[in-house]
Design a protein that fits this description.
The protein is built from one helix and 13 strands; from the N terminus they run ββββββββαβββββ. By secondary structure, the protein is mostly beta strands. The longest helix has 8 residues. Strand 11 and strand 12 form a beta hairpin. The protein is elongated and about 55 Å long. It has one domain: Lipocalin, CATH 2.40.128.
Length: 196
């Protein structure tokens, strides 16, 4: 009688006491991923926007520093809580989504320690590419009701939007600018292990 028992590969591993994702391709779940940007209006009020159409893959290597990240963002999927503001953000004064419909992030170097690290990568927005560091943390693993293994990551960085050619602004009478140049980017990424 042949042994037909199968041994399921664990979706996580423990390294130096930290639970981390197992090697493999972890596909981004767009419906449970939040890529947000925060700027300041009148240099005081925080204004938050988010993208609802984000795709890509986190490829975890046996050595975490050899891992790769590829992300694509549909710039027209931006939402900020105001239809009028969304229209302006998409216009040629800011994102110009007709000419530059997609933003991408491609990792170039990973420096991982424990449950967190820095993922350096080429960020392309508005047709301009700059290498930026993302501070990334692995938040944990869950198994969904359909048997899928999900890995959750958070990340953040800060960019100057003018570095990417997004320069529209209005000078204030009392001094300063209507919209901040520095933009905080905050990411909550839910991924599903591809067992194919």
């Amino acid at each position: 009688m042949s042994d037909t028992t199968t041994h399921e590969v664990s979706p996580t591993r423990t390294l130096d006491g930290d639970v981390l994702p197992a090697p493999g391709a972890w596909e981004i779940d767009p419906g449970h991923t939040d890529v947000a940007f925060i700027g300041r209006h009148f240099l005081v009020t925080k204004v938050r926007g988010r993208f609802t159409d984000v795709t890509g893959t986190v490829v975890i290597a046996p050595n975490l520093n050899d891992s790769k990240v590829e992300v694509s963002i549909n710039m027209a999927s931006v939402e900020s809580g105001s239809e009028a503001r969304d229209t302006h953000i998409k216009s040629d004064e800011l994102f110009d989504v007709e000419q530059f419909p997609t933003a991408t992030f491609t990792s170039t170097k990973v420096e991982w320690r424990g449950a967190s690290g820095v993922v350096h990568g080429d960020l392309t927005i508005h047709g301009v590419t700059h290498n930026v560091p993302l501070a990334v943390t692995f938040e944990g693993h869950v198994r969904d009701p359909w048997g899928g293994d999900r890995g959750i990551f958070s990340a953040e960085t800060k960019v100057n939007r003018e570095d990417f050619g997004i320069t529209w602004n209005v000078a204030l009478e009392a001094g300063g600018l209507l919209v901040s140049k520095d933009i905080q980017i905050e990411i909550n990424l839910e991924t599903v292990l591809n067992r194919a």
